Amino acid sequence: MLATIVPLIGRRLAISIFILLIVSMLLFLVLHVLPVDPAAMSMPPTATLAEIEAKRVEMGLDKPLPQQYLIWLSQVVHGDFGTSIHFRRGVLGLVRDTLPATIELAVLAMIIASVLGIIGGLVLFHVRGTHKEPVMDFGSILLLSIPEFLWSLFFILIFGVALQALPFTGRLDPDMRMPTGTGFLLFDALASGRLDIFWSALEHMILPCFALGIAFSPTIMRVLRSSLIDVYQEDYIHLARLRGLSERRILVRHALKNAILPTLSLMGVQFGFLFGGTLLVEVIFSYPGLGNLMVDAVRNADLPIIQAVGLAYCLVVLIINTVVDSLYLVLNPKLRLR
Amino acid sequence: MMQFLPPWMRSGRVITGLVIVAIIAICALFAPQIAPQDPNEQDLVATLLPPVWVSGGDAAHILGTDSLGRDILSRLIYGARVAMLVAFFASLGAMLLGSVLAYIAGYFGGRIDSIISRAVDVWMSFPPVVLSLILMVGLGVGLRNVILAIIVVDWTRFCRVLRSEVMVVARRDYVAAARLVGFSHWRTITREIVPATLPLLITLVSLEMGIAVIVEAILSFVGMSVSAQTPAWGQMIADTRQFIYDNPWNLLFPILAVFFAVFGFNMLGDGLRRTLDVRVTATQRV
């Protein structure tokens, strides 16, 4: 098995690196047709034209675009993402400080989306052909029509403002200090034995994670339902029935095992969308992650940050897709033929 | 009652969706006639008024006022203009770009197909919100650029789904027959393949309109869409959110407007998917 899988995964990895390279090129191109002058922006307003011109040369902005790209790329490969124009800090440090928060948020939200999606898919499948089907179907369109940022605002209105049950700004209570460590707050809190911080962090994540999770679950529900319906047409399900297996056993041992595969590959795509969805949810909940950094940078036209954060988003999505595709190869023997 | 309607409309979903979309379209078209007040007129004495049914409400402002004393109902009605313009033109543009590439890729296959598919892969690795934000930084704010950004981001939604459908259709016997009779590639695609994929295309456009409404709301929420003078739902959400404790009601209305629009387009799309698809049986359509 390994002998056939490893080259396929290697190929997948090579494609991902190629895509990342193209993405970096596109990012660079889009951001360099901008009508703003990064050199002038990084100087104090009292700077003379000659000083700005010198800065332009220093930043390499006088060179042709392809050469500028290659200079930028070689710096990026060496871990130098430049200095933020607005924050006057190294961009890599800024991204490193905020990325774990976003990953933590996205992973927890994805778990919620998967659980809700699988339960919902089973329920939708269970009610097929009954009088409850139109109602449930209608419900799933209703859910599909509420994007994550509307859920966030609803939750803030209901649980934050009306019931005052849960906090809805930041990652921690204001009187708590972030424990040092990996930046993954739940992990750091547990590692340092601070259960109070762990609970506070978890409390702050409940609303944003559920907003994201609920928004991304309906697609999973619908795909699981239709692949279950497809699988139930197969001969081996009829055979299992003839053998006298219980419906529950048929569902769990035979149908679900096969129907989960298309659902899994969809979840990979969904995670990409969900990871992008964290951007606005973070802004709404003032959650200090990549999304807030990005929006700040966009408002200040802070190019080095926009480039690095854009790249960070793509990198995470590509990694997830590569992992899911590889997992798919391991789980689905049909794809290993050839 | 349904018998008097054309077949594609014989579905509760399609009718519900059409009614909702029509209401919003009428608001957008006739905003100056419908809106009770000028959406940009500030009344700094009457800021953050709650809706009329809450104590402290004013009958002159049925849904209350925002932080600058502007009438929320009027702004909602005018906001439908941006939402509908973006929904219409962005989804049409994304459809044109995405479907042309999908027909080329699915019909010809081979090298051109793998190039287009790779391009889709590159696009898919960008979270849509992130890519549209970056494009808005590059293009600058404004209605035309919002539409352009959504087209550039969302053409892949059409291309991905349509390409596989085209590949299936292109292998059918009647397509081969058309080629044997001597139809050109152009004629085969436009006369044989496009009609077969039209139901899917129409459904996708309808769903994309809902997505475009959401993306515009997101962009105007972070202040990267139309200028501050033009009323837009996302902007209203951003404005009223700052005063959530003083006046939670006012945040609810623009949220509901976005939801209502997206729900209408999704109902329409889901209904059309059933009524236009020849393979779905009559009982499944209702």
CATH C-level label of chain A: Mainly Alpha
The CATH superfamily of chain B is MetI-like
Tally of extended strands of chain A? Answer: 0
Based on secondary structure, the structural category of chain A is mainly alpha
Per DSSP E runs of 2 or more residues, the count of β-strands of chain B stands at 0
Order of secondary-structure elements of chain B: HHHHHHHHHHH
**Which pair of chains forms the biggest interface, and how many residues does each contribute?**
A-B, 50 and 41 residues
Oligomer: heterodimer
Give the fraction of residues assigned to helices of chain A. Answer: over 70%
Question: Cα distance, first to last residue of chain A?
Answer: 13 Å
Q: Secondary-structure element order of chain A, as H and E?
A: HHHHHHHHHHHHH
Chain-averaged pLDDT of chain B:
87
Textual characterization of the structure:
The complex is a heterodimer of chains A (338) and B (286). By secondary structure, chain A is mainly α. Chain A is built from 13 helices and no strands. The mean pLDDT of chain A is 85. Chain B has 286 residues and is mainly alpha-helical. Chain B has one domain (2-285): Orthogonal Bundle (MetI-like fold), CATH 1.10.3720. Chain B contains 11 helices and no strands.
Topology of helices and strands:
The complex is a heterodimer of chains A (338) and B (286).
Chain A: H1 2-32, H2 38-41, H3 49-58, H4 65-77, H5 91-126, H6 133-144, H7 148-162, H8 185-191, H9 195-231, H10 235-242, H11 247-284, H12 290-299, H13 303-331
Helix pairs in contact in A: 1-13, 5-9, 5-11, 5-13, 6-9, 7-9, 7-11, 8-9, 9-11, 10-11, 11-12, 11-13, 12-13
Chain B: H1 12-29, H2 31-34, H3 72-108, H4 110-124, H5 128-139, H6 143-170, H7 173-181, H8 185-221, H9 233-241, H10 248-276, H11 282-285
Helix pairs in contact in B: 1-3, 1-10, 3-4, 3-6, 3-8, 3-10, 4-6, 5-6, 6-8, 7-8, 8-9, 8-10, 9-10
